[in-house]
Request: fold
Amino acid sequence: MRIFSGIQPTGAKHIGNYSGGFRQYAAMQEQGDAVFCIVDLHSITVDYDPADLHDRTLDLAALLFATGLDPQRSTVFAQSHVTAHAEAAWLLSASTSYGQLGRMTQFKEKGDRQEVVTAGLFTYPILMAGDILLYQTDIVPIGDDQRQHLELSRDIAERFNARFGETFKVPEGVYPEVGARIMDLQEPTRKMSTTGGTAQGTLLMLDPPD
Ligand code: ATP
Ligand code: LTN
Reply:
């Protein structure tokens, strides 16, 4: 069984990421052939500093190993090192509807916070679909906030298969039974997030115990 997930090297990682991401990754690597991708190409869709992104990519790899990913068992890599990800995004963009992309709530929320809304932020879910479909993925461990993107990935795979013949496995999302969406501790109507939450309401994985 092929397991695949991606995680962005932006922002400090918080207990929401731990609950929906890290915790599931370490548990799932026991169940099959697991591949984890540090999705640096996703992180350039919002404003970023190149040197900082480089450092954060390495820091995130360290955090993945520190929380239990075993490099002997799982494959961990940076998305930009495998050019097929960018290529797949272009090819799959021709099987993705514009209307469906416009309904993505993450695009609307993140777009509202940007001074300049890039085309990359809009097409971001196609890059994610390519990540998943390239590896003939069976299951994708993610948090509930990524449910809509995963459904879009499934739709793209089905549309492509119907048009060109069976090519891609249609992936299933796996969400934790408890803690699939940890809310901000100050603004409990929003999910905990370093990009969209409040600083006081976000508990970081590397915060000191007190
Ligand atoms: P943020 O919102 O903090 O910027 P993110 O969702 O954009 O984070 P990642 O760090 O790539 O980006 O997310 C890693 C994993 O953490 C994903 O599977 C995502 O679904 C999950 N996740 C993110 N926020 C939460 C949350 N508040 N509760 C549960 N899972 C979450
Ligand atoms: N969009 C996700 C990160 C992500 C991902 C993926 C998750 C990029 N590619 C493939 C699972 C599978 C996010 O914002 N957390």
